[in-house]
Amino acid sequence: MTNENNMNVTFSERRTGLFKEASEISSLCGVELAIVVFSPGKKVYSFRHPSVDVVIDHYLGRNTPKTHITAQLVKANHDSNVHPLNMELTQVCFYPFHFLQYVL
């Protein structure tokens, strides 16, 4: 009995950790994911973002609407991060050449 209890407690802790990591990666990286876990007691637990249907459709190669809110949010996040980084890169790359022009 103790071994079974330990296994259930370990499963519960690991499941919670797995779902927490899945939540973080989905929100930080904008990924679509679904996780299905069966407990030692044969109960089913799942985590999905944004929905199981969207993730399965994407996996099976079915067309999903291009106006899906997740795609819009990911694109907006990408665009808002890329422009400042490109500006910074441009300044870093061209600054030494601009400086050398006055030195020479």
Strand ordering within the main sheet = 1-2
Average pLDDT confidence is: 76
Count helical runs: 3
Between the first and last Cα atoms, what is the distance in angstroms? 82 Å
CATH architecture of the largest domain: 3-Layer(aba) Sandwich
Rg value:
23 Å
Overall outline: elongated
Flag low-confidence runs: 97-101
What's the story with the biggest beta sheet?
2 strands, antiparallel
Number of domains: 2
Secondary-structure element order, N to C: HEEHH
CATH topology of the largest domain: SRF-like
> In the CATH hierarchy, what is the class of the largest domain?
Alpha Beta
- Helix percent band: 55-70%
Number of strands: 2
Looking at CATH, the homologous superfamily of the largest domain is Transcription factor, MADS-box
Assign the structural class, choosing from mainly alpha, mainly beta, alpha/beta, alpha+beta, or little secondary structure: mainly alpha
Strand content: 5-15%
Could you explain how this protein is built, in words?
Residues 97-101 have low confidence and may be disordered. The chain folds into two domains: 1-64, Transcription factor, MADS-box (SRF-like, 3-Layer(aba) Sandwich); 65-104. The chain has helices at residues 2-29, 52-59, 69-103; strands at 33-38, 44-49. The longest helix has 35 residues, at 69-103. With 104 residues, the protein is mainly alpha-helical. 2% of the residues are buried. It starts with a helix and ends with a helix. Helices cover 68% and strands 12% of the residues. The protein has a two-stranded antiparallel ribbon. It has three helices and two strands, in the order H-E-E-H-H. Strand 1 and strand 2 form a beta hairpin.
